[in-house]
Amino acid sequence: MKRIILISLLLAAGIVASAQSKKVSVLGDSYSTYDGVNPPGYAPFYPNNQNDCKLAEQCWWSLYTKAMGYTLEKNDSWGGTTICTTGYGHRDVTASSMLWRFDRLGDPDIIFLFGGTNDAWAHSPVGEYKYSDWTDEDCKSLRPALSCLLTRLALRYPKAQVVVMLNSELQEEVNESFRTVCKHHGVQLIELQDVEKQNGHPSIKGMQSICAQLVAQVK
């Protein structure tokens, strides 16, 4: 009996250690930026004098990794960027799009894809649902680009869990596009609610709300 109890304790300890050692990477836009954390030239929003979130420790990704006992592997977040290759003013933003930054995330156990806000705000084309054989023309639109991105992430990081985060207060057409594409790929979608914002970006309270929703919902 003592031996069984000892084995059970060792297994439990191993599970806890494994959970605590998970590495988290973020592929995102300005909501996930912080000066000095993201690669050089990535146009961070935080810190910002029009928002009370001033410290990296106050950002959602820092709050989440601390709450879960995880470590941050890579944060590849670039302010103003889209998932698809069409940005503001219908400019070609292929080089900065998340679709083309997917392979810069290191060796993560969990990947948070937090995008779509700029696709919505820039009124990038939504396009049609397409789940294979994407062309450059297809990827100018959100739906095929998101599907292509999820496929690329799965192929590049086969052992990683991908979680998609969707901002609150976006157009329903964008929301439904995320729901449909994520369901097709079997990827968990977290539709954020009640995120307080200052200057269009999560405040300290908003960051705490994002973290709490991830802790409660990520499978």
Descriptive overview:
The strands form 2 sheets. The protein has a 5-stranded parallel beta sheet with strand order 2-1-3-4-5, with helices on both faces. The chain has 219 residues and is of the alpha/beta class. It has 6 helices and 7 strands, in the order αβαββααβαβββα. The chain has helices at residues 2-20, 60-68, 117-121, 142-156, 172-185, 204-217; strands at 23-28, 71-77, 110-114, 161-166, 188-191, 197-198, 201-202. Residues 1-19 have low confidence and may be disordered. Helix 2 packs across helix 6 (204-217) and helix 4 (142-156) packs parallel to helix 5 (172-185). The longest helix has 19 residues, at 2-20.
Topology:
Elements: H1 2-20, E1 23-28, H2 60-68, E2 71-77, E3 110-114, H3 117-121, H4 142-156, E4 161-166, H5 172-185, E5 188-191, E6 197-198, E7 201-202, H6 204-217
Parallel strand pairs: 1-2, 1-3, 3-4, 4-5
Antiparallel strand pairs: 6-7
Proportion in helices: 25-40%
Mean pLDDT: 92
**Tally of strands:** 7
Give the terminus-to-terminus CA distance.
Answer: 33 Å
Task: Describe, in short, the structure shown.
By secondary structure, the chain is an alpha/beta fold. Helix content is 35%, strand content 15%. The longest helix is centred in the first third of the chain and has 19 residues.
Note the main attributes of this structure:
single chain; 219 residues; alpha/beta; five-stranded parallel beta sheet; two-stranded antiparallel sheet; 35% helix; globular
